[in-house]
Amino acid sequence: IAPKSSLKFFEKEKKMKTKNLSLAAVLLALGTMLHFLPGFVFGMKPDFLLVTMFIAICLNKKPGSVVAISLCAGALAAITTTFPGGQIPSILDKLVSGMTFYLMVQGMKKPSSLTIGILTGVNTVISGLVFLLSAFFLVGLPAGASLGALALAVVLPTALISTFFGGLLYKLLERLNVARA
């Protein structure tokens, strides 16, 4: 029979996993709802679903959880995408950027909201490029659009906006004593 102290530890771990997975679901739902907002910067909008996915990954640092969160975010993005044929690229970009974000955060003991914001921006660029490249090869780009033009006109501004919102959301969760990346 295990000592009572070890049982308390496992009970606490189980509660933390449930709490963090529940918070991940809430974050992804919030990101999905914000995904429906019209573009507010020259018709563009940040990928709030991507931002909330990265924050959820900060809370759930197990590789299996990261894959599950990334797949959920990819499925939600695929359902809500307005890009013609963007379903598979949406799933691919969330998987790749989710794993790269996880690998970048993995080595940090206590990242700051600034660091999380910057990593959100960097991985938003990765996500955008993976999306554009996979869309280019799988379904093609809209008529008259080039990879470079879309990267400059959409991916980079989105990354800048996502950097701000990623840092802000992480700071908010830190203040609420929820974020422990």
Explain this structure.
By secondary structure, the chain is mainly alpha-helical. The chain is 76% helix and 0% strand. The chain contains 6 helices and no strands. It has helices spanning 4-35, 48-59, 63-80, 87-106, 113-138, 147-175. It is globular. Residues 9-13 have low confidence and may be disordered.
Spans of at least 5 consecutive residues whose pLDDT stays below 50 are: 9-13
Helix fraction by DSSP (H/I, runs of at least 4): over 70%
- What structural class do helix, strand and pairing data support? mainly alpha
- How many β strands by DSSP? 0
Order of helices and strands: HHHHHH
Shape: globular
Number of helices: 6
Biggest pleated-sheet summary:
none
The whole-number mean of residue pLDDT values reads: 86
How far the N terminus sits from the C terminus, by CA atoms, comes to: 33 Å
Radius of gyration: 17 Å
Sheet-strand content, in percent, reads: under 5%
Describe this structure in a few short sentences.
The chain has 181 residues and is mostly helical.
Characteristics:
181 residues, mainly alpha, 76% helix, globular
